[in-house]
Every structure is written in structure tokens, then in C-alpha cells.
Amino acid sequence: MAIPILRENYYANFLGEENLPAKVGHVNLVVADINTGGSFYNSNTITTAAINTAYPVPTPTTVYSQGMGYASNTIVLAEPGTYSFDFTIQVFKNNTTTEGSLTAWLAVNSVNQDYTANTLSLAISSQIGVLTLHSHVVTTTANTRVGLLYAANSTDMQLRTSTASAPYPAIAAVTLEVDKIR
After folding, report:
1. Is 89 exposed, middle or buried (0-12, 13-18, 19+ CB in 10 A)?
2. Whose CA is closest to 38, among 89, 93, 6, 85?
3. Are 90 and 175 in contact (CB under 8 A)?
4. Which tens digits make up the pLDDT trace of 78-103?
5. 3-state SS, residue 175
6. Three-state secondary structure of 121-165
7. Which of 2.40.10.340, 1.10.287.110, 2.30.30.40, 2.60.120.40 is the CATH number of 33-180?
8. 106, 51, 131, 139: CA torsion to nearest 10
9. Cα separation of 33 and 37, whole Å?
10. What is the pLDDT of residues 171-182, one digit of tens each?
């Protein structure tokens, strides 16, 4: 059984003190619902078409999906519950000497979620960086749609995949992991 290790203070804010997991030594353990979860990615490079415009981040390739599906650039959660979302985006800056930034965030049923946004700024051309969001918790009803969106202040910003090159495997432009935790 998969057992994610989670921080007590983080979950106290979302689940309430009375619902905190049991302590085991110095580590708090929460047993994820292993019957509900998903892993998705995009192996295509995505170029920003217009600045300061929100775009959905497609994750069309499903590695694993149970109790959820992928439709219209969103993850559709079949069951009500509390879910943890983790994403990574490999960002590349193309052809310019001015700084560029890319911001990504979650939206639930097309409503942007406060405090889920992360920004990555790249100062020079041909620079690569990774934007991540770890364990953002969303409580949902049945058939909720959760989307990952992004916007950039420069059309030189890309969500870029990298092909395999020995000894390294290919790197997806975007990965998204979803786990039902309650």
C-alpha cells in the first residue's frame, strides 16, 4: 500500500486539527486511497502564442487513472473527496535577452484557485528551469473538473519536452499527479 509522507502543519490548515493523521515517530503518515488516483503527462513542446493570456496545460497521456479521467484539458474527478495535486513544468526561454516569466496554477470548475500559482523567471535565452507545485489540496464534489493553466509575459517562453539522450530518459514538458487522500 502506498503511504505518502505529509507534513502535519500543512494538513492541519486543510483538514482541521481533529483530522490529523496519527504520528509515527517523527513522521506523520496519511494513507492515500490507492483505488483513486492518476498520473498524466505531455511529451510535446508548447509555445506561448500571446503574452499575459491564460492557456490550459494539456496532459493528454495517461500513465494511470482510477476514479478520474481526462477530458477537454481537465482532470474529471468522478468521486467527491479531498485530492492532492502535484505538477512539474519544464520551462525553456527562447531567443531573447530580456527576462521572461511563466506562471502556472490550478482552476476548479473553471475558477482559478488562490495560492496555487507558482512563477518561474528566466533571465537569458536558451535557459531552462522547472516550475513545480507540490501537494496542493482540493476538496471536491462528484464530477469536478480540475485544470492546470499557465500564462507568460513573453512569447519566448515554452513548456518544453526533452528527448532521450544517453544516459538520460526523455523528459516530459508537463507531469501531473493526482491522489485522493480522503
Report:
1. buried
2. 85
3. no
4. 999 999 999 999 998 887 667 889 99
5. strand
6. EECCCCEEEEEEEEEEEEEECCCEEEEEEEEECCCCEEECCECCE
7. 2.60.120.40
8. 0
9. 8
10. 999 999 999 998
